Amino acid sequence: MNKKIGIVMGSTSDLPVVEKAVAVLREYGVSVEVRVLSAHRCPVEAKEFAATARASGFSVLIAFAGMAAHLAGALAANTTLPVIGVPCKGAVMDGMDALLSTVMMPSGIPVATVAVDGGKNAALLALQILAVSDEELQKKLDAAREDGRNAVLKADAEIMEKFK
User: Fold this and answer.
1) pLDDT values of the chain reduced to their tens digit, one per residue, 164 residues
2) Cα dist. 8→29, 62, 120, 142, 160 in Å?
3) Which residues contact 29 (CB under 8 A, 6 or more apart)?
4) Mean pLDDT of all residues in the chain?
5) How far, in Å, CA of 97 to CA of 113, rounded?
6) Residue (of 90, 92, 33, 83) closest to 65 by Cα position
7) 3-state SS of the chain: helix, strand, coil percent to 5?
8) CB 29 within 8 A of CB 139
9) Strand ranges inside the chain, DSSP E
10) Are 59 and 2 spatial neighbours (Cβ–Cβ below 8 Å)?
11) Residue 93's CB: how many other CB atoms inside 10 A?
12) Which of 69, 33, 70 lies closest to 49 in space, CA to CA?
């Protein structure tokens, strides 16, 4: 598989959430490139990254940002690749400000948005996008879902036994 996911964070304060996504992508054997590009502090470089992302071999971009979280939208405005926004908790509104900044995109510039600090789900969504045309990856995702199902059913059986 020679598909690549681009991860961009607005600042290194987002790194703990980014690391969760990177771990998932690497677990599935997907190539990932991680950058720090602020929509506000280096908008030219962020625009250039997005505008050249397809030519650089990226299939999906994931943007992590807190507070005035305009990074996902800034990237999406400059590419037609799928962009997934991950709002990150900040010091002021516990991530609600970032969530609203990420999800409220104008018509014609879509950004898929996951939960606040939802790095793992962003990675899984990116993998599902790739799996549309990758049967091997689809099988890995199906197996992981089955593992999750089995873990819950095992816990259910244990709880049922405990509270007989």
Assistant:
1) 468 999 999 999 999 999 999 999 999 999 999 999 999 999 999 999 999 999 999 999 999 999 888 999 999 999 999 999 999 998 888 999 999 999 999 999 999 999 999 999 999 999 999 999 999 999 999 999 999 999 999 999 999 999 99
2) 19, 6, 15, 27, 44
3) 1
4) 96
5) 13
6) 90
7) 50, 20, 35
8) no
9) 4-9, 31-36, 58-66, 83-88, 112-113
10) no
11) 14
12) 33
**Whole-structure pTM value:** 0.94
pLDDT tens-digit profile of 118-135? 999 999 999 999 999 999
β-strands 83-88, 31-36: how paired? unpaired
CA torsion sign, 8 to 107 to 100 to 125?
negative
For residue 21 the two structure tokens come to 């996504």
Rounded to whole angstroms, how far apart are CA atoms 32 and 4?
5
- Look at residue 12 and give its three-state secondary structure: helix
